[in-house]
From TrEMBL:
It is a peripheral membrane protein. Its main location: membrane. Gene3D superfamilies: Vps16, C-terminal region (1.10.150.780). Keywords: Coiled coil, Endosome, Lysosome, Membrane, Protein transport, Transport. InterPro entries: VPS16 (IPR016534), Vps16_C (IPR006925), Vps16_C_sf (IPR038132), Vps16_N (IPR006926). GO terms for biological process: autophagosome maturation; endosomal transport; endosome to lysosome transport; intracellular protein transport; vacuole fusion, non-autophagic. This is Vacuolar protein sorting-associated protein 16 homolog. The keyword Coiled coil applies. Belongs to the VPS16 family. Core component of at least two putative endosomal tethering complexes, the homotypic fusion and vacuole protein sorting (HOPS) complex and the class C core vacuole/endosome tethering (CORVET) complex. Their common core is composed of the class C Vps proteins VPS11, VPS16, VPS18 and VPS33A, which in HOPS further associates with VPS39 and VPS41 and in CORVET with VPS8 and TGFBRAP1. Interacts with RAB5C. Interacts with STX17, MON1B. Associates with adapter protein complex 3 (AP-3) and clathrin:AP-3 complexes. It is found in: Late endosome membrane; Lysosome membrane. GO terms for cellular component: CORVET complex; early endosome; HOPS complex; late endosome membrane; lysosomal membrane; recycling endosome. Residues 4-420 form the Vps16 N-terminal domain. It comes from Carlito syrichta.
Amino acid sequence: MDCYTANWNPLGDSAFYRKYELYSMDWDLKEELRDCLVAAAPYGGPIALLRNPWRKEKAASVRPVLDIYSASGIPLASLLWKSGPVVSLGWSAEEELLCVQEDGAVLVYGLHGDFRRHFSMGNEVLQNRVLDARIFHTEFGSGVAILTGAHRFTLSANVGDLKLRRMPEVPGLQSAPSCWTTLCQDRVTHILLAVGPDLYLLDHAACSAVTPPGLVPGVSSFLQMAVSFTYRHLALFTDTGYIWMGTASLKEKLCEFNCNIRAPPKQMVWCSRPRSKERAIVVAWERRLMVVGDAPESIQFVLDEDSYLVPELDGVRIFSRSTHEFLHEVPVASEEIFKIASMAPGALLLEAQKEYEKESQKADEYLREIQELGQLTQAVQQCIEAAGHEHQPDMQKSLLRAASFGKCFLDRFPPDSFVRMCQDLRVLNAVRDYHIGIPLTYSQYKQLTIQVLLDRLVLRRLYPLAIQICEYLRLPEVQGVSRILAHWACYKVQQKDVSDEDVARAINQKLGDTPGVSYSDIAARAYGCGRTELAIKLLEYEPRSGEQVPLLLKMKRSKLALSKAIESGDTDLVFTVLLHLKNELNRGDFFMTLRNQPMALSLYRQFCKHQELETLKDLYNQDDNHQELGSFHIRASYAAEERIEGRVAALQTATDAFYKAKNEFAAKATEDQMRLLRLQRRLEDELEGQFLDLSLHDTVTTLILGGHNKRAEQLARDFRIPDKRLWWLKLTALADLEDWEELEKFSKSKKSPIGYLPFVEICMKQHNKYEAKKYASRVGPEHKVKALLLVGDVAQAADVAIEHRNEAELSLVLSHCTGATDGATADKIQRARAQAQKK
């Protein structure tokens, strides 16, 4: 344990700091870091170096080179810089490299050097050029702040949703500030800058002079400033060698330290641990590294070579040409277990486990001591927590073995924390591997979340490792394996040295019917890469037609899209394609396409019936569909024409079409309708009634109701209305008029072709029993009983039924016998039945 703490450095009485190596860097740097623009992403992210930037002492003919490395120094990309001079580099939260040029253009590159997009910081920046720039991170995303040659600031808080803000002017500012930084407070981004001994805070509305509380007097200039990783704290380095530390709001002073060095530092960053009360600043000069806090002394390291500091959530990464190290505050659990002469429960449990492995009785003594104090649960928890903060797998295993040993003597210790820590450490050790190069700490991993870590593995195209982690952690397939396979497929389609057939087959073999994977998304990526045929092949595997069709339309494969829409049976989808085709093709080609797709043609006709009648007529004409064309003109005669002449003309066109279709019945019926229309117009002119658009029967009925019996009979003769139908019409009309006298004359005019039972029924419907009885006697024998029952003459109906000896009629009369009034009639029927049975 004493050896283990050899690299611990105390800062005051309450905190230790340690620095350990993450990787031995094997990158082949041809220039010193001081001669490069450097950007390193947090959370163990990649490193970007822009070699040979635009320096006066460099040959102008040499093109600069942009190199991207993993944190372990493995090359990821290298490209010649062919654009303008670059002022600053920085990484976004999505691990995209932002390159801010002197003309205000920001070029965005992927992790593998692929160009993504670019945007401009505005015309003012273009005119005045860029003096300095900062890439910063907020809760909204990654932002860019620019200092222009006119000594004005412009910023955007989120490059994903670019909204430029021009900050207020600083009064009397004639030269560039000695230092400046961005602050994010209350969801608003501010600029803090130093001009001589003065500090100014810029927000979107005003420029305010601010003074740090408790600042030592005699300061004539601020040389460097640093904001903590969480934007809560601020540090200022003055020309007197004092470092002021306080809250970012500049309302509270935490501490002040005199480093006795007046030379401006190359870098100054915060080094603090989440939920720790300790605050420390790491300051770097050419060959010296200093850690200062609220203690009177500091920790100092000698730098053998050019180094670069990367602030992290819980410490600072330090890399140079040969090494990559991590400096951080020793966590409380580790300190209590490993510090010299510690009697903490975790320390005793670790010793007990080691003695147990040696088969020494001291293990029992240590264990009893912990149990007597009732601290065994605390000891197990300390060992589990400390294991998470250790970088070396051997020490992780030692602590976890101690925790497992202690758990054996506890009755009810929940195993979740132990199991979860084992899983987390396996994942962390896998991504920390030199070939992966993501040196995450446990605190960073928990802040980043497993989903973001998987996204970063996918960005690095480490698909097998990402899938293994998903399977090991048993993540839901849609969030884990399926999502990663989809990303792999999108990368696969970009491999242009492989044939479309091979790529499509490989993707289908790997993905199959994996839930959560959309072949249409992969096909869209293939189309975006210019591989249209590959996209079509991939869409064959997409089971959802609603996803296939829009992309096929986008690829201008409209006819194939129509076939897919028809196969799906989704009429809305078919209509979508049809409307697209209509706008894309000329009229003739569009109609020819429809002729080859009967279902689409039928649906389009339905659409035209409601929306485009003229197009519907053209369709029928092109297909020589005279039957439908005739029907179209008939509908048009009613819907579009108001004048009688126009309607007759439309009907005449329909007649001609029906004759061409060899439908003589429809042609004759249409001709009759034309005759009827002309007749109705004449009747309206002569009789001043409403006849137009009535049916033939209604026209006859209207004439009868109006007392024009002769005209009604003439109309019936002209249109060959059968006598039975005419008698029914006249009977109904006269009864509605209650013209009983005329009805009686009509019934006697000649023998009724419909019999006289209808007369009885119509009279009873009008509640006129008197008139009904007149006709009941004239009803034929087959309906005599029914007629008599309708007028209520049950006794006579019984006599007729007995006379006819008809069982059905007898039963009908018997069903109408009610109460005492018809008792004699019922008996009479029963006797008749009995006599009939004897015979």
